[in-house]
Design goal:
Helix content: 55-70%
Shape: elongated
Strand order of the largest sheet: 2-1-3-4
Structural class: mainly alpha
Distance between the termini: 28 Å
Order of helices and strands: EEHEEHHHHHHHHHHHH
Strand content: 5-15%
Radius of gyration: 25 Å
Length: 345
């Protein structure tokens, strides 16, 4: 039976206040009432709670008196239609920015390996569903544009699957499409706007484009996990990641190394196949005649026949690499944006 938590030096039972999903303050209520709200799914470990009179807002998971109730919640599947975890976006963002960001690449990679080992079927299955949609969409330019716009919606749902398992909560492969049911517009905007702006920056100057791509890596997970508005998520991701930018960039390169090498191999093979024809037409002393141009066109048509097989091989490498890479990046996300235990005196 849960014990009655009392304020030190008094016989008065501790009372608590919470920030609701509507960003309004509720309470004070006693610990038993909070436990009931936890059991009903109205509060989670990330909900902001204040001991009455303390003035400090902290994540509910940092209060040991509620560890048992949160543990029971983690082992139960939330009821359909349960409200999203309450979150005061401004207060929570301020708390995150006040922290000292910590990312250890070795720890993130090891945690991802353990996660994948223990949940291989689930994580590969969820990743395969999103990968299959993405691969199918690339067969036509119109469906490719549609997927480009919806990119954030798919990866928002996939991120939730990984985050739930990282937190010891239940998940199913079908939840990879959860982005269509929660925060659809904000996920769409977060994925599309961050991708578009980083690509435009890369076209103008490569370095700013790479910086923004890395800085906005956690925009979509922040929208999916914390229900932030897309621009607030992009700005919070940028401000936090900037302080550990090189660590996140290195983690991204190592986590996605197999996929990056496969993509580089494809580009080299295509370049090697096209180089002789291009040199024959545009090289020094080579006349740009009709015959040479026809040779280039013929070579290009040949590439069209062989490149799908190479491209599919690269896509398969990406599929096998993605669960591990996502696990590593979302482990870093948990380090940066997840709750932390209060320091001991």
């Amino acid at each position: 039976m849960p014990y009655k938590h009392r304020q030190p030096g008094t016989n008065r039972e501790t009372m608590y206040k919470i920030i609701g999903g509507d960003q309004r303050e509720y309470g004070p209520v006693d610990a038993d009432e909070l436990r009931r709200w936890i059991a009903e799914g109205r509060l989670s470990g990330q909900s902001l709670v204040q001991v009455e009179g303390s003035g400090a807002w902290r994540a509910l998971s940092t209060y040991p008196e509620f560890a048992e109730a949160l543990g029971a919640q983690a082992g139960a599947t939330p009821a359909a239609g349960a409200p999203a975890p309450p979150l005061n976006a401004a207060a929570w963002s301020a708390e995150i920015l006040a922290r000292r960001p910590e990312v250890q690449m070795g720890s993130c990679l090891a945690r991802s390996w353990d996660l994948l080992r223990d949940n291989f079927g689930l994580l590969l299955g969820a990743t395969f569903l999103v990968w299959l949609v993405e691969t199918f969409c690339q067969f036509h330019w119109l469906t490719g544009v549609v997927y480009l716009v919806l990119h954030g919606v798919f990866y928002g749902g996939l991120s939730l699957v990984f985050l739930n398992r990282l937190r010891g909560q239940p998940a199913t492969a079908g939840e990879a499409f959860a982005g269509f049911g929660l925060g659809f517009a904000q996920l769409l905007l977060a994925g599309f706007i961050s991708g578009l702006l980083s690509q435009l920056a890369c076209c103008c100057l490569i370095v700013p484009g790479i910086y923004l791509f890395v800085a906005w890596l956690f925009s979509v997970p922040l929208v999916a996990d914390k229900r932030l508005e897309f621009w607030s998520a992009m700005e919070l991701s940028r401000r936090v990641v900037t302080r550990v930018w090189f660590e996140i960039f290195a983690l991204f390169l190592v986590a996605f190394l197999p996929a990056l090498l496969a993509h580089l191999f494809l580009q080299v093979k295509v370049g090697q196949a096209m180089l002789p024809a291009l040199q024959g037409v545009f090289g020094p002393g080579a006349p740009a005649n009709l015959r040479g141009l026809l040779e280039v066109i013929t070579q290009a048509q040949h590439l069209v026949k062989i490149s799908p097989a190479l491209a599919l091989a690269v896509r398969l490498v990406f599929l096998l690499n993605l669960p591990f890479a996502l696990g590593a990046l979302l482990s870093a996300y948990e380090n940066l944006f997840g709750p932390r235990a209060a320091p001991t005196a």
